[in-house]
Amino acid sequence: MLNRKKWLLHGADRVLPLVRRVPFVVQRLALQQALNRCLAEPLREGEFDLLRGRWLCLRIPDLGLAWYLTRSRAGLQIAERVEADVTISGNWREFLLLASRQEDPDTLFFRRRLVIEGDTELGLTLKNLIDSLDPEVLPGWLWRNLERAGKGLAAG
Fold first, then answer.
1. How far apart are CA 90 and CA 82, in angstroms?
2. pLDDT band with cut points at 50, 70 and 90 for residue 38
3. 140 in Cβ contact with 131 (< 8 Å)
4. What is the extent of the structural domain holding 41?
5. CA distance 63 to 60
6. How confident is the model at residue 132 (pLDDT cuts 50, 70, 90)?
7. How many separate domains does the chain show?
């Protein structure tokens, strides 16, 4: 019998790949709104300006997902396919560990659980920027759930 944490992770492994079936226009709308709302302060302070005219691809191979992000006057913009300057790839579990601060980003990259391809200087700068963001920029409910899920994954 699976314990609760393993059951949830097993369920996530089965449900998350369904996101790729969501029309891209819906994915883009949801992600752009969420990112621009959650990262409003760092965006206002110019912390993501290094993406102006440049594209970051976030690829999640186990989910069959990839999103391309850039910085425009309106905030972070997402495209379905463009030529990326840098790609950061990893399975959803690695991104959860990174987002929940349960795993050191350098460890994830050193162990090749997250991979940077393309302009590695831009990728490392983005990695450091994301790692330096205060979790308090996220809504409290989101941070608590991310942290709880990450701890469950790290413990499992």
1. 19
2. confident
3. no
4. 4-155
5. 6
6. confident
7. 1
Report how far residue 86's alpha carbon sits from residue 116's, in angstroms, rounded to the nearest whole number.
7
Phi, psi of 60 (to 5 degrees): -120, 85
Q: Which tops the pLDDT comparison, 34 or 18?
A: 34
Per-residue pLDDT of 42-62, as tens digits, reads 999 999 999 999 999 999 999
- pTM score, whole prediction: 0.87
E strand or H helix at 12, and its extent? helix 4-15
β-pairing, 86-90 vs 56-60, is parallel
CATH number at residue 123: 3.30.1050.10
Query: CA Rg, the chain, in Å?
Result: 16
Only one residue has tokens 């905030």, namely: 75
Q: How far is CA 73 from the centre of its chain?
A: 21
CA distance linking residue 53 with residue 133, whole number of Å: 22
Spatial distance between the Cα atoms of 102 and 108, rounded to a whole number of angstroms? 11
